[in-house]
Amino acid sequence: RTEAGNDTDLPPYENNVELTLAGETGKLFSLKRVAFDYSGGAHPNTLTSGLLWDKALKRQIGLTDLFRRGADLTVLDQALCSAINTAKRARVPNSASVVLGGKDWSCPRAVDTGFVLTPGDVQGKAAGLTFLIGPYQVGPYVEGAYEIAIPASTFRSLLAITYADEFAGQLIRAGDVTPKS
User: Fold this and answer.
1) pLDDT tens sequence across 113-160
2) Terminus-to-terminus CA distance in the chain, angstroms?
3) Domain ranges within the chain, ordered by starting residue
4) Which strands make up the sheet holding 126-133, listed edge to edge?
């Protein structure tokens, strides 16, 4: 903007990226990435994503890798959608519910949603998964982002044998665990 000679009446540009350890087990570690960007528009944008790393394989893995091949993740999708609607009503009591495959806003499928491991009350184990849902994904920008923790008890029977022992215990908090500003 400075090179164009019109930087004087524009707000400052800001871009910050923060990485934090979300959870770690014997075989896995999970990073949460929060990227804040303001380039002078109506409002800044904050996007959150997760990375899951298999320490033995020395590579990133995805959500489907955690589960048995061909596992039906419908129960996880339904739990995520239900928790999103509970969180939406807590923030905006008259908020419209979202459903899988909705028109304006809809519940995301778990497999298409960023996530991180969520620690609980057992050291070195994950007690669940926290799904990272960005602004505009399930409602208007003013609702903000959601971080929804789903307990492993919801999906334990679907876990691949390789990763089943990485999950144990109870979540400290379930549902909307979005950090407060």
Assistant:
1) 999 999 999 999 999 999 999 888 898 888 889 999 999 999 999 999
2) 30
3) 14-176
4) 114-119, 126-133, 146-151, 175-176
